[in-house]
Amino acid sequence: MNTADHSISGEVSTPAARRRPQPVQWDVVFFKVEEITFPVSPHRLIENSEVFAGMFHLPTSENQTAEGRDKEHPIMLEGYQASEFHALLRILYPTPRDLISGAWLEKEEWVGVLNLSTRWQMKEIREYAIKNLSQLSLSSVEKVVLARAHKVSKWLKEGLTEIVTENPICPLDELETLGLKTACRLLWIRDQSVSRKASSQGFDVTLGSLGCHNSNCQAALFSSSLNCQACHRKIAVDDPGAMHLASGCSVTINDSGTPGPGRGRLILNSQYLRCRYCTNLPINPQNYPCTSCGQQTSYSTFRLISPASRPNPSPHPSVDEVFKEEITSYESWDQ
Fold first, then answer.
1. What's the CA gap between 265 and 301, in Å, rounded?
2. What is the chain's mean pLDDT, rounded?
3. Closest by Cα among 333, 326, 327, 330 to 121
4. What is the Cα–Cα distance from 168 to 159, expressed in whole angstroms?
């Protein structure tokens, strides 16, 4: 039998073959995180993490003591927190008590699991952590902060959209935690959304479209600009973006009983008006005299005359458009 035959069958062991490094068979491995040493059976780490799978399949020579084989030579996990590692182990190795009681982790522990599973490429564990955190009470700002720390596109879109649409907007100190650039972008989206907001009736309300309640009078009550009573910004008579109708507002169609084009009148309660800039009531709730017929019109019975019409504006900028590059970069982590 030639040497090639011996090599293929594996029946001959040369000195060189005996010295060849062999993969370590791990039963228990010791990790040291901060000041705590954790004895762990590594099979779940190997099954769920490409990082650990590569680590434990590294060969070692006969004369070399592999890190982690005993307490005196633990694998040092520098830059990690023991509390996060412990939380991850509870997910990988749940106790019967955990399974029976269903009492799993607190929010901060789930965040720790998300952090480690992301850094150690544990896809299924990462998805599980995201799922459980999504079921907890996360504020809009928390979603953005966690999304950026752990590359979660879903939370980034949800959090930014909630900040733009919530009323009132989140406190300034919370907004500042997102960074100046993000805060400016969000306020710009919000401003554009408000300024282009059409009423539920399909038209914009201007100061000049608020008319006398008298069915026989077609006069406008305001012929010159005024300042918002709340923020003191100028409201031009013909500016369709200066005011908008509050969400849920309804315009009443009033039948005067008199035949003619003025029989059906659109009546608006000015309490539903909102200033574009501060979102507060822009005009004083009082009676207004008509310079044409002399009658008084209550703030709750303005007649809408010649509502401002203009070409439909392009859709207002969205979070998906403004933050597209960042959102797209996180989506690759979910593949």
1. 10
2. 79
3. 333
4. 15
Look at phi and psi of residue 321 and say left if phi exceeds 0, alpha if psi is from -120 to 50, else beta. alpha
Confirm if 297 and 212 have CB atoms less than 8 A apart: yes
Name residue 171's amino acid.
P
Beta pairing, strands 22-23 & 29-33: unpaired
Distance linking the first and last C-alpha atoms of the chain: 53
Q: Provide φ and ψ at 5, rounded to 5°.
A: -65, -40
Token pair for residue 107?
A: 């929010």
> What is the helix (H) or strand (E) element at residue 22, kind and residue range?
strand 22-23
Q: Do 216 and 305 touch, CB atoms closer than 8 A?
A: no
Q: What distance in Å separates the CA atoms of residue 269 and residue 300, rounded to the nearest whole number?
A: 4
Q: Which tokens sit at 230? A: 């709340």
Instruction: Give SS3 for 255.
Output: strand
- pLDDT band at residue 91 under the 50/70/90 scheme: very high
Q: For residue 288, which phi and psi values (nearest 5 degrees)? A: -125, 130
pLDDT in tens, 5-21: 433 333 444 444 444 44
Q: Which residue is listed with tokens 């309640």? A: 213
Contacts 24+ apart (CB under 8 A), 13-17: none
Residue type, 96: P
- Over 60: is that where the pLDDT of 282 sits? yes
Single-letter residue type at 30: F
Between CA 91 and CA 133 the distance in angstroms is 14
63-81 burial code (b ≥16 CB/10 A, e <16)? eeebbbbeeeebbebeebe
304 forms beta bridges with: 210
Instruction: Report the alpha-carbon distance of residue 137 to residue 255 in Å, rounded.
Output: 49
CA dihedral 96, 102, 107, 108 (to 10 degrees): -10
- pLDDT at residue 39 greater than cutoff 80: yes
